[in-house]
Amino acid sequence: RERTLRAGHPLLLATEANLGQALYRSGDTKAAITMLSRAADRWAEVYGDAHPGRVVALTSLGLALQAEKR
Question: pTM, whole model, 2 decimals?
Answer without folding.
Answer: 0.88
